[in-house]
């Protein structure tokens, strides 16, 4: 997400350097480039004008801090303006009532049904809520079956209904059941249309009047760019929206919708969908998204993701094993691959590390998830003894493993080589101060703009941003 905008802004912000003070003259060209970058990212024109003016007002006449160079100072101002444009702070769900009712609205194809399932999982796992999902989509073929299937996948209950029933009648019955069975939250999926029309709006108004939800969320496809903000505005005029959910953001390289929706609708973006899987839903934090756009990473989200997905017991056992000098075998290597897969793979992790946005793009192009799956298949084809003692693999064993995993001999040899490198790294990590040395070594090997050399925005020090 935001690749083109991030790349354009990175190039633009590098140009301000060597000035003791930010003036109208020395920021004029940079602001023009920022404006062009935002327009190319399909950000709504009124939002672009407001944003550029906001940055200009803050920048002009400001003394450059002794701790920051002009590029860093300007970056700080752009970061603050981006954060404010998208909403300043994270706006969570305000769940009130027994049960708390959440109505999902939006056009057909925006991903409402999948988002209902993702949100149900989020509430069940992270908020520990008992959730009931309800489909009122009596028009789209198999819409109700789709929600029922997804509900089973995410481990929540789905209210049984059929397409021959009236939406308001289904809703009344679902409300009764939710009260009787003491559900904490009821998520209601409504029918979408190909465009905004009067019949659709009348129906959803009637549903809203019956449900009286504590949250009315507009689900919108991020890939529709400026249209996303305009459609959200149309729905906001018909319904008292409380927030927006941006879907398919992983496929939107421009990011215009994320920057426009808040300003155009006045409603906060509460969640952002970053993939098709049912766990690919993140709370929307404007400050973290602004950091990602500017190539400064998102360490907080990465840490939260690691805490949720990593098996702490296994990690502790591995650390203890390595510390005792028992080595790092292929069984351990496989577990590390599985943990990485849980966290969305290499490109997802790199994208959230400061100065690593460029590497994330390269990692994605080279298909690391495919390589990881291949490595896992090779290890799975080995016996437990072979995983513990890979150095004893001979020609016939290697042939058997390759045939069993459907891979080539060079794939196996590459795996063994990578494993040896990781073994060496693990040994070094047990030495005092080794991690700091390893990080310095990594930064020195990376090309400029990806964490090595001078780093982006002329920051030096491996491209890691200053602490604001």
Automatic annotation (TrEMBL):
<dbReference type="Pfam" id="PF02978">
    <property type="entry name" value="SRP_SPB"/>
</dbReference>
<comment type="subunit">
    <text>Part of the signal recognition particle protein translocation system, which is composed of SRP and FtsY. SRP is a ribonucleoprotein composed of Ffh and a 4.5S RNA molecule.</text>
</comment>
<dbReference type="GO" id="GO:0006614">
    <property type="term" value="P:SRP-dependent cotranslational protein targeting to membrane"/>
</dbReference>
<keyword id="KW-0378">Hydrolase</keyword>
<dbReference type="InterPro" id="IPR013822">
    <property type="entry name" value="Signal_recog_particl_SRP54_hlx"/>
</dbReference>
<keyword id="KW-0547">Nucleotide-binding</keyword>
<dbReference type="InterPro" id="IPR004125">
    <property type="entry name" value="Signal_recog_particle_SRP54_M"/>
</dbReference>
<keyword id="KW-0694">RNA-binding</keyword>
<protein>
    <recommendedName>
        <fullName>Signal recognition particle protein</fullName>
        <ecNumber>3.6.5.4</ecNumber>
    </recommendedName>
</protein>
<feature type="binding site">
    <location>
        <begin position="189"/>
        <end position="193"/>
    </location>
    <ligand>
        <name>GTP</name>
    </ligand>
</feature>
<dbReference type="InterPro" id="IPR003593">
    <property type="entry name" value="AAA+_ATPase"/>
</dbReference>
<dbReference type="InterPro" id="IPR022941">
    <property type="entry name" value="SRP54"/>
</dbReference>
<dbReference type="InterPro" id="IPR004780">
    <property type="entry name" value="SRP"/>
</dbReference>
<dbReference type="GO" id="GO:0005525">
    <property type="term" value="F:GTP binding"/>
</dbReference>
<keyword id="KW-0963">Cytoplasm</keyword>
<dbReference type="InterPro" id="IPR027417">
    <property type="entry name" value="P-loop_NTPase"/>
</dbReference>
<keyword id="KW-0733">Signal recognition particle</keyword>
<dbReference type="Pfam" id="PF02881">
    <property type="entry name" value="SRP54_N"/>
</dbReference>
<feature type="binding site">
    <location>
        <begin position="106"/>
        <end position="113"/>
    </location>
    <ligand>
        <name>GTP</name>
    </ligand>
</feature>
<comment type="function">
    <text>Involved in targeting and insertion of nascent membrane proteins into the cytoplasmic membrane. Binds to the hydrophobic signal sequence of the ribosome-nascent chain (RNC) as it emerges from the ribosomes. The SRP-RNC complex is then targeted to the cytoplasmic membrane where it interacts with the SRP receptor FtsY. Interaction with FtsY leads to the transfer of the RNC complex to the Sec translocase for insertion into the membrane, the hydrolysis of GTP by both Ffh and FtsY, and the dissociation of the SRP-FtsY complex into the individual components.</text>
</comment>
<comment type="similarity">
    <text>Belongs to the GTP-binding SRP family. SRP54 subfamily.</text>
</comment>
<dbReference type="GO" id="GO:0008312">
    <property type="term" value="F:7S RNA binding"/>
</dbReference>
<dbReference type="Pfam" id="PF00448">
    <property type="entry name" value="SRP54"/>
</dbReference>
<dbReference type="InterPro" id="IPR000897">
    <property type="entry name" value="SRP54_GTPase_dom"/>
</dbReference>
<feature type="domain" description="SRP54-type proteins GTP-binding">
    <location>
        <begin position="268"/>
        <end position="281"/>
    </location>
</feature>
<dbReference type="InterPro" id="IPR042101">
    <property type="entry name" value="SRP54_N_sf"/>
</dbReference>
<keyword id="KW-0687">Ribonucleoprotein</keyword>
<dbReference type="GO" id="GO:0003924">
    <property type="term" value="F:GTPase activity"/>
</dbReference>
<feature type="binding site">
    <location>
        <begin position="247"/>
        <end position="250"/>
    </location>
    <ligand>
        <name>GTP</name>
    </ligand>
</feature>
<dbReference type="InterPro" id="IPR036891">
    <property type="entry name" value="Signal_recog_part_SRP54_M_sf"/>
</dbReference>
<keyword id="KW-0342">GTP-binding</keyword>
<dbReference type="GO" id="GO:0048500">
    <property type="term" value="C:signal recognition particle"/>
</dbReference>
């Amino acid at each position: 997400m935001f690749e083109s905008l991030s790349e354009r802004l990175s190039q633009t912000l590098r140009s301000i350097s060597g000035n003791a003070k930010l003036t109208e003259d020395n920021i004029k060209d940079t602001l023009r480039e920022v404006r062009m970058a935002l327009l190319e990212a399909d950000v709504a024109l009124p939002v672009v004008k407001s944003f550029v003016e906001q940055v200009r007002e803050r920048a002009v006449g400001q003394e450059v801090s002794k701790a920051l160079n002009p590029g860093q100072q300007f970056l700080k101002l752009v970061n603050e303006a981006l954060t404010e444009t998208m909403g300043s702070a994270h706006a969570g769900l305000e769940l009130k009532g027994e049960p708390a009712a959440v109505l999902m609205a939006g056009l057909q194809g925006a991903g409402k049904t999948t988002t209902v399932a993702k949100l149900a999982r989020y509430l069940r796992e992270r908020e520990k809520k008992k959730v009931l999902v309800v489909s009122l989509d009596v028009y789209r073929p198999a819409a109700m079956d789709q929600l029922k299937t997804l509900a089973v996948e995410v481990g929540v209950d789905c209210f049984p209904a059929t397409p021959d029933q009236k939406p308001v009648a289904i809703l009344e019955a679902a409300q009764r059941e939710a009260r009787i069975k003491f559900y904490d939250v009821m998520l209601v999926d409504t029918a979408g249309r190909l465009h905004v029309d009067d019949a659709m709006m009348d129906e959803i108004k009637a549903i809203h009047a019956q449900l009286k939800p504590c949250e009315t969320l507009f689900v919108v496809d991020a890939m529709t760019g400026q249209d996303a903000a305009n459609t959200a505005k149309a729905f906001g005029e018909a319904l008292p929206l409380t927030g927006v959910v941006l879907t398919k953001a992983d496929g939107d390289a421009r990011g215009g919708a994320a920057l426009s929706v808040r300003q155009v609708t006045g409603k906060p973006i509460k969640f952002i969908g970053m993939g098709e899987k049912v766990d690919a839903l993140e709370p929307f934090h404007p400050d973290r998204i602004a950091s990602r756009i500017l190539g400064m990473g998102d360490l907080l989200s990465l840490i939260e993701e690691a805490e949720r997905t990593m098996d702490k017991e296994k990690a502790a056992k591995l650390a203890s094993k390595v510390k005792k000098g028992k080595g790092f075998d292929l069984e351990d290597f496989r577990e590390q691959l599985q943990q990485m897969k849980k966290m969305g793979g290499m490109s997802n992790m790199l994208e959230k590390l400061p100065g690593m946005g460029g590497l994330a793009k390269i990692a994605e192009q080279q298909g690391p998830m495919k390589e990881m799956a291949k490595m896992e298949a090779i290890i799975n084809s080995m016996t437990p003894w072979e995983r513990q003692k890979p150095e004893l693999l001979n020609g016939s064993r290697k042939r058997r493993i390759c045939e069993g995993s459907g891979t080539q001999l060079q794939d196996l040899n590459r795996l063994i080589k990578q494993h040896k490198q990781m073994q060496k790294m693990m040994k070094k990590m047990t030495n005092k101060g080794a991690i700091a040395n390893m990080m310095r070594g990594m930064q020195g090997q990376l090309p400029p703009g990806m964490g090595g050399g001078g780093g982006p925005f002329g920051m030096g020090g491996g491209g890691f941003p200053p602490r604001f």
